[in-house]
């Protein structure tokens, strides 16, 4: 059966991806005899590129190649790149689920030429792949395809060349359309490579039309005519003044969304109807318990929710697998928004319990063929999602309370001016008294006028009075105007900060007979979006000073030597600007053509040492470290001892002792990583590291603290490897696919890898991709001692350790402590009493002392209670009567809060009916505690919260509580007696 594209075959999403890659692998360069290099998708977290929030296009990982900062051993490439567009400049989040083609996570198929082929071949390849019926081609009916080219502007002429190539390949001229720069001129940023582009569109047919039954010509109907492929022709270099200079080697960058081409080839109108999504949507139906029947058109909102869950599960799974964790800023904040949006739509479908964490495994099952790393990371990703779901449930409760507080605050703001202005207050009071008669025995106690202001402290009273005012405003004869708008900016703050769904807020406002000010809400939202866009401006390479980009690469010889003689000074940099020389005493950076200094990378810090003069005798500069501001260029941080100028010849000499200590810790990190995975589980994945001469620090994914016995086991495993003196092998120029898939090498977080990689292998125990320097054998480490473990962030733990002489120093310190402990507990160092170590003896001694202290505290509490009870034994005689109500007020210093509550309960029983006020002072701490109890029969007349609030004000504090029991604190110890003495009058005032 022929599908919508005209093809006789059914193409699965997996097959489409593989066909695309294989097609271009077969397109061979005449110059090199090589086909397109299949390049594995890079991480969703861009490496060494602060201009991007997430990887959002296939060309991101080749950005340095296009900029000329990096060269690779191939000139043409093909990839299927995972992308996320959910924040910053490219943000599709709010559209996802409600359109056919918007996604947060998607895959971009792309072919690239780095100065190899250009327009003619790119156009020919694209047309062949789309329309041919050859192997690995899609066989789309050419009659359904349209093409656009750049129509030209004042700076760049019309792309007649591209049009000619399209016509030569068989596209009718009437199907080629000129478009403006907005659609058909691409640029990497404000400066740098740019050029015209050509887009290919597919006609989805009348069934996809924006307006049913209306046949609009191309390109007027964006729903019907879908862009499936964009061919970018990089042929200019834009300077800062806008000048366009032809590139010496024009390049090609193309991008085709896998989800879109799948919809075309599978004959469906929406990407969500393809096999890339239907299994996930089906799983979402199972997990939410909400199955949507296709014939129920009215259930479109539920269908959108299921699409959102499926899409967001893909994005969350891949982001977490690439090292992103939910947070309150940056990438983690976007992930949190994605997750919470998915969770919220599950709630809209009626699922209140966690469910998104199970969607992770559905994503794994669908995507693990193309992304085998999901097999290992899915378990960890699921735990991250579950933790976020549980936290969101708590947030929802808190956020709902905050929005309800905003409603009450808004009502109070509405009522205060009305009730403070005659003649309305009298009318409303009268209406209120009638309405509240069954709610409060004394309506005046619920609120009262003081100095033309309303003190409204009772939510029921506020709501009821607002209802009264609202009804009164509906009668024109009352001349009352009442606002029903909730401040939009404040509502947006709750929406953005706490994640309370907008729909929930709208419903709550409607229930309160109010509306959210949408103008203010949208204005606040726009301000936030502008702030986000300003924080993440994708564009030109701004991470390094321009001076570095023009320099040749530095040849690094530090893997095999600590000294290089005759290195040439290529450039000197001071404060980010190139200078001809650095004078003695000045600090700056020196770029050399060759060096023995390792530069910061992969967690290993740069080497320190010296630059010697060309005659090998004089230290011309001290080196405090090295970095790579541009890929391959080494910048040495120096303090010059004498003038050093461009063109000088120097010797690079690395501090051998510091290097040795650093590489011991670096190799130790690899051992520690493997041991943690062995003890804690394969979900452990590196999340960061730092290796310097002093110690090693290793961050990893794990959800609970590492127990002491687990740390001890890790330490034992690591040191067995050290004592085994296993050879540390370094394999160079290994194809990355071979390293990962055949050797089983683990990639380190935050490291940038090319097509050829270095693999560090420690026997059968550890195999990792790593560009760092290591010991020749594990025995060189000496010993590894774990010195600390703790939390870094949600789901990330940190272990710190020392090795070599650092470990020796640690053992010496421990030995000194052990001597002191031994003397304290009565056992000698290095010996034990009946098999008990000094540490165990100390623990036992401390535990016994803590138990003794608990016993003494209990006895002291008992004595205090007896003393306090004795002083209050004649409660009836101590109480005074105020307007028929007994009031007992006493000072009970030295009694804890819990004991004060017990005393209040006891005294209320003795009084039978009345009010009890107790106060206690801690003079040393400058604190006052107050507690008020009211017997149940009196709470309709006088409330404990109001009494304690007025008393607290007298001692410099505040408090509140239930009508029958309330507490407060204060700081004015000297005013406590006066406050207690006046307690009866306070009660009398509230009795009226």
Automatic annotation (TrEMBL):
SMART domains: tRNA_SAD. Binds 1 zinc ion per subunit. GO terms for cellular component: cytosol. Residues 11-813 form the Alanyl-transfer RNA synthetases family profile domain. One of its GO terms (molecular function) is zinc ion binding. Keywords: Aminoacyl-tRNA synthetase, ATP-binding, Coiled coil, Cytoplasm, Ligase, Metal-binding, Nucleotide-binding, Protein biosynthesis, RNA-binding, tRNA-binding, Zinc. Belongs to the class-II aminoacyl-tRNA synthetase family. Consists of three domains; the N-terminal catalytic domain, the editing domain and the C-terminal C-Ala domain. The editing domain removes incorrectly charged amino acids, while the C-Ala domain, along with tRNA(Ala), serves as a bridge to cooperatively bring together the editing and aminoacylation centers thus stimulating deacylation of misacylated tRNAs. NCBIfam families: alaS. This is Alanine--tRNA ligase. It comes from Tunturiibacter lichenicola.
């Amino acid at each position: 059966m022929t599908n919508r594209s005209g093809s006789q075959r059914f193409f699965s999403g997996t097959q489409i991806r593989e066909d695309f890659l294989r097609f271009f692998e077969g397109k061979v360069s005449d110059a090199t005899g090589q086909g397109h290099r299949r390049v594995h998708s890079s991480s969703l977290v861009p490496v060494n590129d602060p201009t991007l929030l997430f990887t959002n296009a296939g060309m991101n990982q080749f950005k340095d190649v296009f900029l000329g900062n990096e060269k690779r051993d191939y000139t043409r490439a093909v990839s299927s790149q995972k992308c996320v567009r959910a924040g910053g400049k490219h943000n599709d989040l709010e559209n996802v689920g409600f359109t056919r083609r918007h996604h947060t996570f998607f895959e971009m198929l792309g072919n690239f030429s780095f100065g190899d082929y250009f327009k003619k071949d790119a156009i020919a390849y694209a047309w062949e792949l789309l329309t041919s019926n050859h192997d690995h081609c899609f066989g789309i009916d050419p009659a359904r395809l349209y093409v656009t080219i750049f129509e030209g502007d004042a700076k760049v002429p019309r792309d007649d060349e591209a049009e000619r190539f399209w016509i030569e390949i068989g596209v009718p001229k009437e199907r080629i359309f000129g478009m403006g720069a907005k659609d058909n001129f691409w640029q990497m940023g404000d400066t740098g490579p740019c050029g015209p582009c050509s887009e290919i569109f597919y006609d989805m047919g009348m069934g996809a039309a924006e307006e049913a039954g209306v046949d609009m010509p191309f390109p007027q109907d964006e729903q019907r005519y879908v862009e499936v492929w964009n061919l970018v022709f990089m042929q200019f270099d834009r300077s800062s003044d806008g000048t366009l200079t032809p590139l010496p080697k024009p390049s090609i960058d193309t991008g085709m969304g896998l989800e879109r081409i799948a919809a075309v080839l599978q004959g469906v109108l929406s990407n969500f109807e393809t096999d890339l999504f239907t299994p996930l949507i089906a799983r979402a139906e199972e997990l939410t318990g909400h199955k949507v029947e296709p014939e129920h058109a009215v259930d479109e909102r539920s269908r959108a929710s299921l699409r959102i869950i499926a899409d967001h599960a893909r994005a969350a799974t891949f982001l977490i697998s690439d090292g992103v964790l939910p947070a309150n800023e940056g990438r983690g904040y976007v992930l949190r928004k994605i997750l919470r949006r998915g969770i919220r739509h599950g709630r809209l479908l009626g699922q209140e319990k966690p469910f998104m964490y199970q969607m992770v495994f559905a994503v794994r099952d669908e995507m693990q063929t193309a992304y085998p790393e999901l097999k290992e990371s899915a378990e960890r990703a699921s735990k991250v999602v579950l933790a976020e779901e549980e936290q969101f449930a708590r947030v929802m409760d808190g956020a709902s309370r905050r929005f309800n507080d905003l409603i009450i605050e808004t009502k109070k703001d509405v009522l205060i001016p009305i009730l403070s202005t005659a003649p309305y207050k009298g009318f409303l009071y009268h209406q209120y008294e009638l309405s509240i008669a069954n709610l409060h025995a004394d309506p005046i106690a619920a609120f009262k006028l003081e100095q033309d202001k309303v003190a409204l402290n009772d939510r029921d009273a506020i709501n009821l009075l607002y209802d009264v005012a609202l009804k009164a405003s509906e009668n024109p004869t009352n001349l009352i105007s009442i606002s029903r708008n909730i401040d939009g900016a404040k509502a947006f703050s709750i929406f953005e900060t706490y994640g309370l769904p907008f729909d929930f807020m709208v419903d709550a406002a409607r229930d309160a007979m109010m509306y959210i000010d949408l103008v203010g809400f949208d204005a606040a939202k726009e301000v936030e979006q502008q702030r986000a866009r300003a924080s993440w401006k994708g564009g030109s390479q701004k991470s390094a000073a321009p001076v570095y980009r023009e320099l040749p690469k530095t040849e690094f010889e530090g893997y095999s030597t600590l000294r290089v003689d005759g290195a040439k000074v290529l450039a000197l940099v001071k404060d980010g600007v190139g200078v001809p020389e650095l004078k003695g005493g000045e600090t700056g950076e020196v770029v050399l053509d060759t060096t023995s200094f390792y530069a910061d990378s992969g967690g290993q810090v740069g080497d320190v040492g010296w630059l010697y003069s060309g005659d090998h005798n004089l230290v011309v500069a001290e080196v405090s470290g090295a970095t790579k501001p541009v890929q391959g260029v080494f910048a040495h941080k120096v303090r010059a001892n004498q003038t050093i100028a461009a063109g000088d010849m120097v010797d690079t000499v690395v501090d051998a002792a510091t290097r040795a200590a650093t590489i011991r810790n670096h190799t130790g990190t690899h051992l520690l990583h493997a041991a943690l995975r062995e003890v804690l589980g394969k979900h452990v994945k590196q999340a960061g590291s730092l290796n310097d001469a002093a110690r090693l620090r290793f961050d990893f994914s794990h959800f609970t603290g590492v127990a002491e016995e687990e740390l001890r086991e890790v330490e034992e495993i690591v040191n067995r490897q050290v004592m085994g003196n296993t050879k540390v092998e370094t394999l160079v120029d290994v194809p990355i696919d071979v390293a990962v898939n055949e050797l089983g090498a683990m990639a380190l977080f935050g490291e940038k890898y090319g097509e050829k990689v270095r693999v560090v292998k420690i026997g059968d125990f550890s195999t990792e991709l790593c560009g760092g320097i290591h010991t020749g054998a594990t025995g060189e480490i000496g010993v590894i001692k774990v010195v600390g473990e703790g939390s870094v962030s949600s789901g990330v733990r940190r272990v710190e350790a020392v090795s070599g002489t650092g470990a020796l120093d640690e053992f010496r310190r421990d030995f000194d402590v052990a001597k002191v402990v031994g003397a304290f507990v009565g056992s000698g160092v290095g010996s034990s009493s009946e098999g008990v170590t000094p540490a165990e003896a100390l623990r036992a001694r401390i535990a016994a002392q803590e138990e003794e202290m608990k016993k003494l505290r209990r006895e002291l509490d008992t004595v205090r209670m007896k003393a306090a009870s004795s002083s209050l034994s004649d409660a009836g005689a101590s109480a005074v009567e105020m307007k028929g109500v007994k009031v007992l007020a006493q000072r009970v210093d030295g009694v804890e809060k819990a004991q004060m509550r017990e005393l209040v309960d006891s005294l209320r029983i003795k009084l039978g009916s009345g009010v009890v006020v107790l106060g206690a002072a801690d003079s040393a701490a400058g604190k006052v505690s107050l507690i008020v109890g009211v017997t149940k029969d009196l709470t309709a007349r006088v409330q404990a919260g109001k009494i304690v609030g007025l008393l607290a004000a007298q001692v410099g504090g505040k408090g509140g509580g239930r009508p029958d029991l309330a507490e407060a604190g204060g700081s004015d110890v000297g005013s406590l007696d006066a406050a207690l003495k006046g307690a009866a009058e306070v009660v009398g005032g509230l009795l009226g």
